[in-house]
Amino acid sequence: MNDHDYKEYISEETLMGPSCVRILKELLETHPLQLSREDMVLDLGCGKGLTSLVIARETGAKVYANDLWISAQENSARFESWGMENRIVPVCEDANELHFEKGQFRALLSVDAYHYFAGKKGFFEQKILPYLKSGAEVLIGVPGIKDGYAGRSEELLAAWLGSEACMFKSPKEWKEIIGRHERLDCAETWEMACFDDAWNEWLAMDQEYARGDLVHYETIIKPYTCLVGIHVRLK
Ligand SMILES: C[S@@+](CC[C@H](N)C(=O)[O-])C[C@H]1O[C@@H](n2cnc3c(N)ncnc32)[C@H](O)[C@@H]1O
User: Fold this and answer.
1) pTM higher than 0.85 for the full model?
2) 26-52: average pLDDT
3) Which domains does the chain have, with CATH numbers?
4) How far is the CA of 155 from the centre of ligand 1 (A)?
């Protein structure tokens, strides 16, 4: 994947945190997906849909772009302006109450969103697994806390994140949260290598939230946090 292909789509409007394009590049390069045009992929928590664009172009599959805060109408207009209206389907639903067909998806991807709704044991098994086909692949990238500081998110991150600090889990904690299930072939988590690039691209934005993050970058974000990669393959 060449991240330069997406430069023209990255803007103050579409970027919502550490660069989702860098995060997807690492996820897709470490775990390449073999998908066809007929396959369906769920982009869970797609935000403004930049992730959905990358997934659709890099995999060739049809992408269901689901988000809670951004309306389907808003994303629909963006996908049309990108000429992707036939390849990306906008959906606005809470990840806790999805209404897709059972066994619909060959893959699920989620960038910088999964921590908002999936931090409890049982979520993956109850809310995600039913929608995945046998042999499906799951690739997730979320901000988290380094393993060395696991369990200390509220103490170390509250000055930056307030009550959302508890959502930041470490790679080992995420592996436990995904849990075990007879349908899982493998599940692994890791500290992503793209941390510096992803954050630098975001902090360079002339954007209110990026400026807020910049204040805490050297003292909190860089020393204590990481980006957690999660890969799950089904039998
Ligand atoms: C920081 S944005 C990331 C968006 C996009 N994936 C990206 O990387 O640019 C987090 C997204 O998670 C979505 N989200 C939060 N809670 C959700 C929920 N319960 N169900 C679906 N989406 C949710 C929000 O709507 C928001 O757009």
Assistant:
1) yes
2) 98
3) 3-142+171-195+225-234 (3.40.50.150)
4) 24
